[in-house]
Amino acid sequence: MDDFLIYLRLGFDHITDPSGYDHILFVIALCAVYTLQQWRQVLILVTAFTIGHSITLALATLQLITYKTDLIELLIPITILITAITNFFFQEPKTRSNTAKPSHQSWRYGLAMAFGLIHGMGFSNYLRSLLGREANIIKPLLAFNIGLEVGQLIIVSIVLALAYLILNVIQSSRLRWTLIISGIVAGMALSLIINNEYLGELMQ
Fold first, then answer.
1. d(CA 14, CA 25)
2. What is the distance between the alpha carbons of residues 152 and 36, in angstroms, rounded to a whole number?
3. Residue span of the signal peptide, if any (predicted)?
4. Average pLDDT of 153-163?
5. Which pLDDT score, from 0 to 100, does residue 100 have?
6. pLDDT tens for residues 48-89?
């Protein structure tokens, strides 16, 4: 199999791996306040996250920036918790078409991009362990990032489809859906933070 396809598959498997569910939780938290009809806004939001993690994934993989791995592993669940908590206070300004004006949500795009920078460093830990001493890392880096994006979009599609089922078929309230999903994500993120070994070392 071509190396490009191998690294694309590795990127896809990494973000969709249930055993490393922290990135999945973040994407779910990002999408929890939106419906299927708002897919354009979700696409912009996810693109902001992608831009953020692409920057630091590239810089860290090329060893242009350095950081403490243990700190990043602690910061990732913190970004998930913060994102989930913001969902509890999210109030969408309405227009005649019942959709929010993007200008009112610019802070969410900025937050997604900023947190993407942290997640990108987390992605790079895994990618660098795969690359080893490979001479040309640009092609694997690109393939891995595309794989991440494909997996990310699949997760988004599942969340929005589930939201459509709950809101339109079962006819549950949108507020209840947002609170339940965000609450579950926040609880899981908090558990990751509490059980983080680096946090334990800092508190000693």
1. 13
2. 16
3. none
4. 96
5. 46
6. 999 999 999 999 988 899 999 999 999 999 999 999 999 998
- Residue 21 CB-half CA count within 13 A: 10
**Backbone φ and ψ of 190, nearest 5°:** -65, -40
Q: Which residues contact 29 (CB under 8 A, 6 or more apart)?
A: 80, 83, 84, 87, 182, 185, 186, 189
Q: How many CB atoms lie within 10 A of CB 204?
A: 5
Per residue in 110-156, pLDDT tens?
A: 999 999 999 999 999 889 888 876 668 889 999 999 999 999 999 99
Cβ atoms within 10 Å of 18's Cβ, excluding its own? 6
Count other Cβ atoms within 10 Å, centred on residue 170: 8
- Residue 125, both tokens: 């830990």
Amino acid at 61: T
Q: How far apart are CA 127 and CA 123, in angstroms?
A: 6
Helices 3-16 and 138-164 cross at an angle (nearest 10°) of 40
Helix (H, G, I), strand (E, B) or coil at 32: coil
